[in-house]
Design goal:
mainly alpha, 2 domains, 6 strands, globular
Length: 374
């Protein structure tokens, strides 16, 4: 037990370091192993710049930590054996990252009732969201002056305040997607004169940390399988109804993710490998939904033909292909269905209202296309 705690503390410390380095990268517009002259062993950053990375890592990890401990303390309240959070550091220094793949806890007991599943599932997103709101409020009410962007991109100074008319013409520019809560803060809370260009939001640490907090909250609240949203919806609907709904929502999710992946304008003989690869992907993610492969293949054919139809008649309609990776993780590792529990009694009215509140939070936080490259 002591060894696991030491590992969990070590993972947290390493993740704090990697997210701080990632924050410094975003705030300087440089990579850790590259400076103006090329490859460097961290020479691109000064000590002050590294410390500035804490303005991203502390609030971002703060939200993740509150989220995980929401699950942890609720599980302990129900006397369910559960581990402390395991943080997952991820930092390359040669490509942009956020320094982590998130965190998770491991439940080591069986959960015996819909109420316990519901309470443990909902505690994390609600706790994290409660911290993300003041973080966003602070970020949008304490924006630096527009000239702040010149500390990240000094080359923009030659264009002055009209730099956006010149510097984004070549394409390949990354921007953050939109969600309803971000739109609210931009239009109601922030000073319009101080709002950064949408291609520069990730260079503002509190805004970037707040956006990622909403992104991970929405990701966990997807009402599929054994995600937090799946636990919540299972508590609301029960075993049979939820396990009929979850694969339907998963199929819709994959359908949206795959829209626009293979344009109809490309001749078949030039893209057969793309078509074949995507068909293989659909077989892999839909196979766990049915007891027989034949049933999965019917769904594969329906989704694929739907995409072809959209590509022919509505070629401008696009989904978000980045979700395909998460769809694969759901299908192969996390599961689309929810296990039963001995106590299937319905939730109280107050918990039902709380469940629908969680659904509203999901809608407010969800970005259909969270990370865009033009």
């Amino acid at each position: 037990m002591k060894g696991k705690v030491v590992l969990q503390i070590l993972l947290f410390i390493v993740t704090l370091v990697t997210t701080t380095l990632a924050g410094a990268e975003w705030q300087t517009g440089r990579l850790f192993f590259f400076d103006a002259e090329g490859f460097s062993w961290g020479g691109a950053f000064t000590r002050t710049q590294l410390l500035q990375g804490l303005a991203f890592s502390l609030p971002f990890l703060g939200v993740l930590t509150v989220h995980e401990f929401g699950h942890y303390f609720t599980a302990r309240y129900y006397k369910v054996k559960v581990t402390l959070p395991y943080y997952i550091p991820l930092f390359l220094g040669i490509a942009s990252s956020i320094g982590t793949m998130g965190a998770f806890i491991k439940i080591k007991d069986r959960i015996f009732s819909r109420k316990e599943f519901f309470d443990i599932g909902i505690a994390g997103p609600l706790a994290g969201f409660a911290v993300a709101l003041p973080l966003l409020w602070y970020g949008f009410t304490h924006l630096p002056p527009p000239e702040h962007i010149y500390t990240i991109h000094p080359e923009y100074m030659v264009f002055g305040s009209k730099y956006a008319d010149y510097v984004y013409q070549q394409g390949g520019n990354m921007s953050l997607g939109r969600n309803l809560l971000f739109i609210f803060f931009e239009r109601v809370v922030a000073d319009p004169a101080l709002l950064p260009n949408r291609y520069e939001l990730m260079h503002y640490p509190y805004l970037f940390a707040g956006f990622l907090a909403l992104f991970f909250t929405a990701l966990n609240l997807l009402p599929i399988g054994q995600l937090d949203g799946g636990h919540i919806m299972y508590g609301l609907l029960g075993y049979e109804r939820f396990n009929r709904l979850s694969p339907l929502l998963f199929a819709i999710f994959i359908f949206y993710a795959g829209m626009g992946l293979i344009p109809a304008s490309i001749p078949l003989e030039e893209s057969y490998w793309m078509w074949g690869g995507y068909l293989a992907y659909l077989v892999i993610v839909f196979k766990p939904l049915f007891p027989e492969l034949r049933q999965s293949l019917f769904l594969v054919a329906g989704v694929f033909l739907g995409h072809v139809t959209l590509a022919v008649f509505f070629p401008d309609v696009q989904g978000y292909n980045g979700w395909l990776v998460f769809g694969l993780i759901l299908a192969k590792f996390m599961g689309v269905f929810h296990p039963p529990c001995p106590d299937e009694r319905p939730l109280s009215t107050s918990r039902k209202w709380l469940g629908w509140l969680a659904l509203i939070i999901f809608v407010l936080c969800f970005s259909p296309a969270p990370f865009l490259i033009d």
